[in-house]
Amino acid sequence: MTKKPFYITTPIYYPSDKLHIGNTYSTVIADAIARYKRLAGYDVMFLTGTDEHGQKIQRKAEDKGVTPKEYVDEIVAGIQDLWKVMNISNDKFIRTTDDYHIAAVQKIFKKLYDQGDIYKGHYEGKYCTPCETFFTETQLVDGKCPDCGRDVEEAKEEAYFFKLSKYQDRLLKHIEENPGFIEPVSRQNEMINNFIKPGLEDLCVSRTTFNWGIPVTFDTDHVVYVWIDALSNYITALGYSSENEEMLEKFWPADVHIVGKDIIRFHTIIWPSLLMALDMPLPKKVYGHGWLLVDGGKMSKSKGNVVDPILLSEHFSVDAVRYYLLREVSFGSDGQYTSENFIKRTNSDLANDLGNLVSRTLQMIVKYFDGNISKGLIEDEFDEALKSFAEETVNNVDKFMDNLKVNDAVESVMKLVARANKYIDETAPWVLAKDEANSERLKGVLYNLTEAIRFISTLISPFLPDTAVKINSQFKFEENILTLDSIKVFGDIDFNLSIERGEVMFPRIDVEKKLEELDKIREEMLKAQGVEKREIIPIKEEITIDDFSKIDLRVVKVLECEKVKKADKLLKLTVELGGETRTIVSGIAKHYAPEDIIGKKVILVANLKPAKLRGIESHGMILAASTDDDSILEIPMINKDIPSGSQVR
Ligand code: MSP
């Protein structure tokens, strides 16, 4: 019998030198689904990869003094290693710098141009010259470049456009007629109401301001817009427009694209429109998952709250990390990472519940039957209850996985673990063991526990593959009794196993000690990123808002500035404060030349008692940030149109 194909993709990742536990989520969840489908007998194609073009990459490579390709090669190797560590079972890894992908994207662009879906026009927008980047009005921050904060100017450049507007009605119809196309539903409504219904504008799909991209074959000053390049990966990986389209025929349309909520718009508006233009069927589903947040916010290197999945796996286990991700982020919503919670889950669910069930069962089989287990006497309602619970769990997990409710599926398996632990308490094997006459019954109880563990190990294998392997090897379960088909009926197999007790799967964790270790991990990571943890000057005693309001901070404009003779640290400034002028002496001469601050607006402590410095009376103090040793100093400046004399609160 030929297996049914199932095609699942993750987003292709930007080459970032440090992926944190949050952004491994898209891949771990896709891996769990892919593994489950394999277990259910599907012929699975699971694709992941990297999205390597664009101006940012080009710039980073320039900063490092290497070519963009050299730059991405190193990082991509790191990402591939990470997926190995995390036990990701992808069938293919695509890089947008792969030749076949480049050739296919060029053909896509040309085809769309030839058929009139791409046309040449002008791109108008706000341009930041130093950054060589166009921004839309909404991307600007306070009217300035969102990257460097400098002024932007109106500019116009030649560019190619994709007729996105042409597909608006068809797209809306498709979404409305296929309720499962965008999931969860909340995201579907967001796309319809916030983006499609207000009207789609044609999309600028080429750039000329940098060249690290796929060249447009018929106009080589242009490179293809990164999202057109990136989204196409889902079909180029299957051989689209190559000599061999067998994989494409077999696996397209994709069963599901797994994407984070931040990029769902690209996948449900641009991607389907592009496919319509290519006359290709649309993916069956785009699933926009929630995010894993740290300390209530996004993880970022600059915040120092990045949690490194590799370090975490080394200190705990890969399965502990996978378990946390799969359990903590519920269908469609965000989850929270805290070290305390991570340790708690690992301890209670994995070490206590699952670990104990397995080790207690093994221990009893070794102790009472020398490691041999086969069917014994199965007779009472406890047996029946365990059997029906286990069989129901198989159905529940299947339903949840069909609806991509991975966290609910994991939870279901853990409920079966709890049920099996309860069965131990109900049947009290240690009591049965006291009387030889109960030997058959004791055997029956241990058989049932073994059977429950076989169900659990099979069901948990897509989520915790290492754990399943460990359980199976200790119980000597053969592969043929570890498929979804083989766990339809509980108690059907007459085991004749001879088991051994192996290592403890999830040792209990000393919470305090581990938390300390995690703190250390964080420090190590910050150090690796060049951020040393250092002692800061202790925060001063608390003050009230009234205390604070006694300090009168004002915006002042520097009119004149000169060096103070024979004092190499001091500058004498004349500042304007709401029409009046004042003299200020400031110890900033090592960091600012007079011409650097003349004309600038700075912040003054305006009601500070005057003090004489080198014979000059200073009427206030200018605010500056500096390192403890004063080797670096910066004066915060007011760039917006706030007049001198205005308050700073
Ligand atoms: N290159 C694009 C995708 C192109 S697909 C044609 C991209 N890459 S990414 O590296 O920035 O993100 C990869 C995935 O990680 C996205 O699905 C994103 O939503 C996900 N995540 C990044 N941080 C995350 C969390 N903190 N939590 C969960 N997922 C998050 O976008």
UniProtKB/TrEMBL annotation:
Residues reported to bind Zn(2+): C128, C131, C145, C148
Keyword Cytoplasm: yes
One BP annotation, GO: methionyl-tRNA aminoacylation
Any Pfam family: tRNA-synt_1g
Co-factor remark: Binds 1 zinc ion per subunit.
Broad class of where this protein is predominantly found: cytoplasm
Keywords annotated in UniProt: Aminoacyl-tRNA synthetase, ATP-binding, Cytoplasm, Ligase, Metal-binding, Nucleotide-binding, Protein biosynthesis, RNA-binding, tRNA-binding, Zinc
Motif 'KMSKS' region positions after renumbering to this chain: 298-302
Residue intervals of the TRNA-binding domain: 547-649
Stored CDD domains: Anticodon_Ia_Met (cd07957), MetRS_core (cd00814), tRNA_bind_EcMetRS_like (cd02800)
One example GO MF annotation: methionine-tRNA ligase activity
Protein family per UniProt: Belongs to the class-I aminoacyl-tRNA synthetase family. MetG type 2A subfamily.
Self-association and partners: Homodimer.
Entry protein name: Methionine--tRNA ligase
